[in-house]
Fold each of these.
Amino acid sequence: MSESSASGIIQHFGTKRLLVNFMNFLASVGAPVLRFMNATGKLTYFAAQSVINCFLPPYYFRSVIRQFGDIGYYSLPVVGMTALFTGMVLALQSYTGFTRFNAEGAIASVVVLSITRELSPVLAGLMVAGRVGASIAAEIGTMRVTEQLDALTTLSVNPHKYLIAPRIIAGTLMLPLLVLLGDIIGVFGGYLVSVHMLGFNPHSFLSQSWDVLESMDVISGLVKAAVFGFIVTLMGCYNGYSSGRGAQGVGAATTYAVVSSSILILIFNYILTQVFFS
Amino acid sequence: MTDLKIKMKDVHKAFGPKRVLNGFNLDVPKGQSVVIIGGSGTGKSVTLKCILGLMDVDKGSILIDGKETANIHGTERSKIMRKFGMLFQGGALFDSLPVWENVAFGLIHGQRMGREEAREIAIQKLASVGLASQVADLLPAELSGGMQKRVSLARAIAVNPEIIFFDEPTTGLDPIMADVINDLIVKCVKDLGATAVSITHDMASVRKIADKVAMLHEGRIIWYGDKSELDNSGNPFVDQFIHGRAHGPIMTIGAAQAA
Ligand SMILES: Nc1ncnc2c1ncn2[C@@H]1O[C@H](COP(=O)(O)OP(=O)(O)OP(=O)(O)O)[C@@H](O)[C@H]1O
Ligand SMILES: [Mg+2]
């Protein structure tokens, strides 16, 4: 065998190796991308189906009202506590920070703007993701695993209408209400600390808060809240609905629901802030 | 030829590499009670879910009243769904609703009946499965396993479906209650003119409720005949099954190791 043909063979195998490696590389990039696209597609389809079913009859008013209670009313303590302490801490932090610049006077504005624009909606969203998103995913996931979803379908009831639509409606409508309350409680928390601990004049704190606040600050927070409520309930329902088999499947569904809705809340918070204030 | 209520032809269903139904054929005549027997995990429950449309089939045809229904979805599917009642193997009761509302669920939400009226029917149906009206306001979690099964049975028959599927209706019940349930199934078929497809491992139940018996093995029906032919089917698989022998043509892991 001549030398040149041997090197030809080596070269041939070399390029083949390279090609295989390259293909492997493509596969390792491609598989997650495909999986991501697949999941996104499924979620989008699920979301569309759910939203459409919110508007199509039959309507299950009983379930909607029940969800108002479960999602709205029972989240009050969590959201209220979060807002209260956030407002308090905000006043304290900005006081210690602002005294360095002799800008203590801005505390009221800082508290009221941060609470209404950002902290009340985002923190309420995250708290509700933990409380409501997890429980929705666990409940619907258990229904999947114990064939209750199949039983619903067999009894001619569409799970999207009976289970999912009421939760999404309740989430989207109740979160703005919770956030509105959170706004008030949060500012009240700031007021408590400023007036009772830092010795501010109560009247000037309130009037300053009121003067600096624009309706857009509150409205933007409420719109965010509606979006977050939609995200939390949608992700809870989606993950529960597509839960795997067994207790493990339900556990995983619950985790995914909380993690994915929390991340989506943070992402959409940025997007919405950009839309509102740029 | 009698009318066929359900006709399954060459149905295939696999989960990943695992083939569960593999050329499954079954004819269910109108107004008759067909019992499917077969080993655990052979795909009996899957068969029912395919007929109900809860699972898509990979291949094959499922005719109901002569209409093709395999892999049909949407409004067409909900029309067919109204003909069905199903007792799930695990009961599948809605655990957030009281017992009576479980039973009345199809009446209230499927047929849009008033709650009062539906509740009364639910209590009648509960009585027919041997449950007193006191249980009506309990939650399913407060009942024993056998009681849950009976509630589930009451729910399946509450809407007077044309076709009823019973997935192991008597497992977990005491022998007397099992016989009550058997009678009830016979009554549904004979009195209401319903067609029934049941799954059971209980040979006493087979003898009581079946008009026809089908034996499922390795993804297809390997024997199908009248109940009267069951004892001299001449089929070694059927013989082994109905006599419950560990040794025979159906290999269990344990028996295979012993051999
Ligand atoms: N959703 C599913 N995903 C994956 N595999 C499944 C699914 N449902 C059923 N199977 C598999 O299909 C096979 C048949 O299951 P099926 O529940 O029909 O058994 P069966 O005949 O009803 O048994 P048993 O008498 O124990 O109830 C099993 O091996 C099961 O693991
Ligand atoms: Mg089964």
Amino acid sequence: MSSSDSAASRPANPRVALFVTCLVDLFRPSVGFAAVKLLEGAGCRVAVPALQTCCGQPAFNSGDRETARAIARQVIDAFAGYDYVVVPSGSCGGMLHEHYSALFADDADLAARAGDFGKRCHELISFLVDVMGVSAVAARYAGTATYHDSCSGLRELSVKAQPRRLLASVAGLKLTELPGAEVCCGFGGTFCVKYPEISDRMVADKTRDIVATGADTLLAGDMGCLLNIAGKLRRDGHRVRVRHVAEVLAGALDEPAIGEPATEHAQARHTGV
Amino acid sequence: MQSTSHSFKDNARAAMANPTLQRAMGNMRHGFLAKRLAAIDRLPEFDALRDRARDIKNHALEHLDVYLEAWEAKVVSAGGHVHWARDAEEARRIVLAICQRLDARTVTKGKSMIAEEIALNPFLEANGIVPVETDLGEYIIQIRNESPSHIIAPAIHLVQDQIEQSFREIHTQFDRDRPLVEPRQLVDEARGVLRDKFIAADVGITGANFLVAETGSSIIVTNEGNGDLTQTLTKAHIVVTSLEKIVPTLEDAQTILRVLARSATGQEYSVYTTVSTGPRRPNDLDGPGEYHVVLLDNGRSRMLGTEFQDMLRCIRCGACMNHCPVYATVGGHAYGWVYPGPMGAVLTPSLIGVDEAGHLPNASTFCGKCESVCPMRIPLPKMMRHWREREFERHLSPAAMRWGIAAWAFLAKRPKLYRWVSGLTANVLGLLGRAHGSFRNLPLAGGWTLGRDMPTPQGETFHRAWARRRPRGTHS
Ligand code: SF4
């Protein structure tokens, strides 16, 4: 989709439903609030439908199609009536955007509803840039960051340039490219539960590359990857701060970075790093 | 070939604990990827060619019976023979019968994954016939008594020292102190050894990259020219191949060849592309006395018309495994059968059963890289997911996983209850872990916390915080 097409046909102040995602809900509400701030800043009227839980990926990717369908129906119902559904995750975004309609391939009505729903679903950062036409943010961040491209966002939703573009407008932030930024971090949802040792080895490769950049901050757009990467960096004693890209773009830095102890965070803020 | 796919986890563990293998895999990682990228950058129409390649194969598969029969008629009219083999056992017997009729003592072999699939070498050996692999990689693993770990680079799991050591052990005819440190020296030595075998061989066996219905030809691509020597110097050339290799015309094969080498090795074209049509004709200067094609099914026709049909488009370029982060971590042998990596994760359960190979389609993060590089646009993750669905339907997935999904689904379908449970979990974990920022151990997350911490939740769920902060209005 080209940005001008969608920008031209959209309402000036669209009604946007935030799909919070289960990981943001449970682990990191600050990402949800950062998303709301960015969306409202771009002129959206944001709502948070109450009847949401999860997008259904754990069932879908475990082969439990029936459960995935039940959850998909629930999500489509809960999010009816909004101009857009926005998700601070490429993985869940890909599920809503790409896979729901495939779940109902045998039911023309539902498939059409799911298809229409999918078209309204967007990953947060690409929505801001491609649909809302945002090209800069008014945030500040003191540090050097590197960015990991989460797989589904990158390959299912073409999220690549958008976060870099907005990060380039953050005052004080230096962005340094991560070699192998497009290589999977090994999270993989249920994969990290089923094959923890392989997953661990993959994230070790990822954190080795991150540390080698010399950046003090690692950003990405998906909580799954972020928990995985932050957990590995912590275990190995690296002080790289890990945040969801929305937090930095929204200037929402009050909370400690992912996996960071409150004390360390207070100290870092005190010394201004 | 005997499968060890069911012990994928143990295989993977052993592979990750093997420093030499890890070194070899590290070497592999970058070479292939950079070369492919450079080759594709030089060909702006690459993506359009991929579409055409996909369409050609789809068309051929839709009319497989028509094209196979047309091809067979052409093979016969060129003086060749076609042998249809339902399974590996039949295929092996057909090859043996031809060899025995010709009193063959040694056969030379070009690289063939179908020969691996039907475990041809051990069978020939058991029947007193000596098979000699002539592809350098295949030769190396043959003398080491190993199986290929990659479909185009069979010895990719080895480092050079290991190859040198094997040559010194096996090639006792040469000076013990000869230098074998340069790759070139290894190649030359192998070539010298193999030359004599080509001359001595009675039968040459190759695979096929394509079967061409229009002409009745088989086509192979190699970089060493060993295929040509294998098939031209012998009493008989036996092509062992499988039925999905068919394409309608030579031009179709040519189109697909343009994406094959670029995807595989980043070459514009393989060094040798050899088209074989029938045996030597009276006025030909060389060529085999007889030309046979053993056409293997072995479960492929069962894939037609199912959600796995697209897999039959595969041209065995290896790009999916070259780019697979799981393959790069565990190597090809961990997959436990002939076909590793993403293509193996889909194909292996189709050919030897999902009961045996159930791990393979599960051992993927669904990162999607394989599909993004596949020249034939095969939706590999989607088909792995289909296998997971079949496993789930048949209750083959592990009980703990099924139980976990059921418990989670029960909650996910009840938003109010879900809200309550997630709220409580966030509170408790937040309280417990806040000071440290992350957990080093966590009940039920044993696998995760083996090598990494689990970051602590912030303490309140988003939905609770939102209801508190924006009590009116937008929580509709
Ligand atoms: S699945 Fe695609 S990428 Fe993998 S070997 Fe086959 S053709 Fe190549």
